[in-house]
Every structure is written in structure tokens, then in C-alpha cells.
Design a protein that fits this description.
Blueprint lengths: L1 E5 L6 H14 L10 E5 L3 H14 L8 E4 L3 H5 L4 E4 L5 H13 L10 H25 L4 E4 L4 H12 L3 E3 L3 H12 L8 E7 L2 E8 L7 H5 L2 H4 L3 H6 L1 H7 L2 E2 L4 H4 L1 H10 L4 H18 L4 H14 L3 H6 L15 H14 L3 E8 L12 E9 L2 E4 L7 H23 L2 H9 L7 H11 L2
Parallel strand pairs: 1-2, 1-4, 2-3, 4-5, 5-6
Antiparallel strand pairs: 7-8, 7-11, 8-9, 10-11, 11-12
Helix pairs in contact: 1-2, 1-17, 2-15, 4-5, 4-14, 5-6, 5-18, 6-18, 14-15, 18-19, 19-20
Length: 444
């Protein structure tokens, strides 16, 4: 089986490769559904060469490791592939720096996927993602596209208009939340059943249980010590989680604690994008000069990246450090491989994915992309029935879906009015005048 990664020069690509190597160690080379060839494509050939050197070092002494090929162009990368992992970053880390800094000049949050920064990122990324979807349809119509590209909900929404159900968006935040909550409740993270519904970076865990058992969430919410023993409990605090009666995705901290997070971001010496721009730029420069050291450099840089993840939110809630079990960098790569295995082998799996809504949230269109628990097999992913959302959660979801749809419209049509609507309707942007000035500064 052939797997293609678009954005193959991306910093996190070795995590996917590492997961493939783990599978190669466990399963024979001729096992059905196993990846035997990994194709990488990136418009930045220098970064692609560095990542290729990291993969080569990582695969040393791994029998049956998939071969790695660097494609010359997009169609070459797509032709004959079975799965496409789309992990592009249009504009690079410099684009992210601008997405974060421009909104901050107007006193509103700039963040990669949330708020004005997320909308700006979507306006730049969606047109490229749509062109990729069109080439997949033309060159590899039977391939499945697994979208890693942020903002994942909006990008998947746009690509689905070309590819339908053959594009599936993924994120590691929900599975991380479920696993941390299960451990805190004394349950097995690998076997719990759960109800999670929302949009990408805007969802809620409403129940979880061991097979055949009672819901464990009420007991966890009633135990402040257990509740504040993991990341989301520390971020939101036991009092607020008890009031909500649910466990929110970590990115909801930007909504529920907007003032505190904004203050932390504005007083920080650098934005997250600026940190990553300098950190990754340094890594690629050093690794290009010393390819033999590329793997060790990557591993050291990756750990630093994980240690500083969501640092502004943690600073706003006491400056605590991440747990060691959350620093391995795995998550989205494991979700992607589990999704690929289920489709390729026809085996059933339950995963939180970004897929067409169907009837999961009746207030939304059946075609709208939501993030929810799905059953996956050889036919693809189907959302499972979910408990109704509360009024507050549904209201926020509907408002953000309106933002996503307006952003996709603006990105695909060039409509300034749609772009203004996308920014001005976002709950983290407080006026159409502010939205207009942000768009002007960003060149839209």
C-alpha cells in the first residue's frame, strides 16, 4: 500500500513515519493494509531533503521499513497512491507569525486556528487545499484523503465539496482529552466508550464509560483532586468544569477565559508562531549543514516544542508544566494510522473525526463538517448518534459554523464581504470595524 504525504517537509512528518515503523516491527511485510511505500512531496525542496535524512536515520535497522520516495511534482506524488495525508502549511511559519501579530494590533486574539488568526490562515490555505482536492479527483480518484492541515474543520469543509466523503479531517486534541480523563477516573484509556461532539477545536466530552459500565464523568467531576490532575482540569478549573457538566476541548480555553489568555499572549515576549519560526528555522539550518545529526536535532527540537505547547494558556492558569505522558508527540499520527488501517483492512474502529454531520447535530446541514465519534470500516467513516447538545454549546457551535462557512466562501470566491462576515461574526472579534481593519492589514 502506498501513502503520500503532502507537506512532506513538515516538521512533524517523522511522527507519522515513526508510527509506520512501529507497525513494520509488529506485522510481516506482506500483511494486508500495511504501508510499503511512503511518498513525500513539498514545495520546499530544502526542507524535504532534511526530513528525508531524519526518516533515513529513524528507519535504520528496522526490517521491512517502507521505502521512501521524494516526488517531483504534485501529480507524481498522487498518481497510484492509496492514501493522501495532507499536512501543508501555506505561507510557512512566517505566515503564522503574521496571522497572530496582525489581530493583536487591534487588541484581539491571534492564534493559529482560533479567532481572527484562524480565519486569516483559512483565507490563505483553503484555495490551495481545494486545488489539491481537484488534482486528487483527477489523478487518484480512488484515494482517501486524510486532512491534517489547519484549520482542519474549515479545510476539510472546503475539500469535501470536491471529494465528498473521501476526505476525512483529523485532530489529536479529542483523543488526548479522552485518554487523560480516563486515566484520571481510573479507567483504561484504550477501551473506554465516549460521547464527544463539536467542531474542530470546539468540542465537548459529555460522557465516557468502560464497556457495559456506568458513565464515569459525573464521578470525575465530583472529585476536584482527580479533576485537576490532568491538563484540561488545570486549564479550566474544577469549579467551571462542574458548572459546565462536561469536559471541553483545550482550545475552548480561548473562549471561556478570553481575557486571561489574551493578556498572557499580549505580555509574552514572543508569540507561539514567532517561537516556532525561530525554533524550526534553526533546526532546518543546522540539520542541512550536518545531515548525520539531523535525527538527534529533530528529536531535541520536537521535545522542546511539546513542552511549550499552549504555553500562554498554562501561564494564564498558574504556569504549570505538561505531564510527561503528553510529551511523546504522538496523537494525530496515531489517529491517522488507525483510520488508514480501518479503511484498508475493513476492520471496525471508533475514532473522533471531522466528517459530514448527517443527523448528528440536527440544527446543522447534513453536509456541514463536524468533529464527532465515528465508526470506520472499509467503506469509510460514519458519525454515530450523539446526545443532544446543550443550548450554550449548540449556540457557540452554530456561530462558529457560520464563521467557517463564510471563510470558505471568501477563500474560494474572493468575496471581501464574506471575509468581513467571517471575521466580524467570530465571538473573539468584537466589532465589524476591527474586522475590517484586520483584513486591510492582512491585504484582503
Amino acid at each position: 500500500m502506498r501513502l503520500t504525504i503532502l507537506g512532506g517537509g513538515g516538521f512533524r512528518v517523522p511522527l507519522v513515519h515513526r508510527a509506520l515503523l512501529d507497525e513494520a516491527r509488529r506485522r510481516p511485510a506482506d500483511a494486508p493494509g500495511r504501508c510499503t511505500e511512503l511518498v513525500l512531496y513539498d514545495t520546499d525542496r530544502d526542507r524535504l531533503a532534511v526530513i528525508a535524512s531524519v526518516l533515513a536515520a529513524q528507519a535504520e535497522d528496522v526490517p521491512g521499513a517502507p521505502s521512501v520516495r521524494l516526488a517531483e511534482d504534485l501529480d507524481d506524488a498522487l498518481r497510484g497512491t492509496d492514501f493522501v495525508f495532507s499536512a501543508i502549511r501555506v505561507g510557512g511559519t512566517a505566515g503564522r507569525v503574521a496571522d497572530e501579530r496582525i489581530p493583536m494590533t487591534e487588541g484581539v486574539l491571534g492564534q493559529e486556528t482560533v479567532g481572527a488568526g484562524g480565519v486569516l490562515y483559512a483565507l490563505r490555505t483553503v484555495p490551495v487545499a481545494v486545488r489539491i482536492a481537484e488534482r486528487v479527483r483527477a489523478v487518484a480518484p480512488d484515494a482517501w484523503v486524510i486532512n491534517f492541515t489547519n484549520p482542519a474543520g474549515m479545510v476539510t469543509e472546503a475539500m469535501a465539496r470536491v471529494l465528498g466523503e473521501r476526505v476525512i479531517g483529523i485532530c489529536d486534541s479529542p483523543v488526548g482529552l479522552v485518554r487523560r480523563a480516563a486515566r484520571a477516573a481510573g479507567a483504561d484509556p484504550d477501551t473506554v466508550e465516549f460521547d464527544y461532539t463539536g467542531l474542530n477545536h470546539l468540542g465537548w466530552l459529555r460522557s465516557f464509560r468502560e464497556p457495559g459500565g456506568a458513565d464515569l464523568l459525573p464521578g470525575l467531576l465530583a472529585d476536584p483532586a482527580a479533576l485537576t490532575s490532568f491538563e484540561e482540569g488545570k486549564l479550566f478549573g474544577s469549579e467551571w468544569l462542574q458548572a459546565l457538566g462536561a469536559l471541553p476541548n483545550e482550545y475552548l480555553h480561548y473562549y471561556y477565559f478570553r481575557r486571561e489568555t489574551l493578556d498572557s499572549v499580549r505580555t509574552a515576549a514572543e508569540t507561539r508562531g514567532e517561537f516556532l519560526d525561530q525554533q524550526q528555522g534553526g533546526f532546518f539550518a543546522r540539520a542541512a549543514q550536518d545531515p548525520a545529526a539531523s535525527y538527534a536535532l529533530w528529536e531535541r527540537t520536537r521535545l522542546e516544542r511539546e513542552e511549550t505547547y499552549m504555553a500562554e494558556s498554562r501561564e494564564a492558569t498558574g504556569g504549570w508544566q505538561r505531564d510527561s505522558c503528553d510529551l511523546d508527540g504522538g496523537g494525530y499520527d496515531q489517529v491517522a494510522l488507525a483510520l488508514m488501517r480501518a479503511i484498508a483492512r475493513g476492520e471496525r474502529a471508533r475514532l473522533v473525526l471531522n466528517v459530514p454531520n448527517g443527523r448528528t447535530v440536527p440544527a446543522l446541514s447534513p453536509d456541514a463538517i463536524v468533529e464527532t465519534v465515528c465508526e470506520v470500516d472499509g467503506e469509510g467513516a460514519r458519525p454515530l448518534a450523539a446526545a443532544p447538545l446543550g443550548e450554550a454549546e449548540l449556540g457557540l457551535m452554530l456561530q462558529l459554523k457560520a464563521v467557517e462557512l463564510a471563510a470558505v466562501e471568501a477563500a474560494t470566491s474572493g468575496s471581501h464581504r464574506a471575509a468581513l462576515r467571517a471575521l466580524a461574526l467570530h465571538p473573539l472579534v468584537d466589532s465589524p470595524a476591527v474586522a475590517a481593519r484586520i483584513l486591510e492589514r492582512a491585504g484582503h
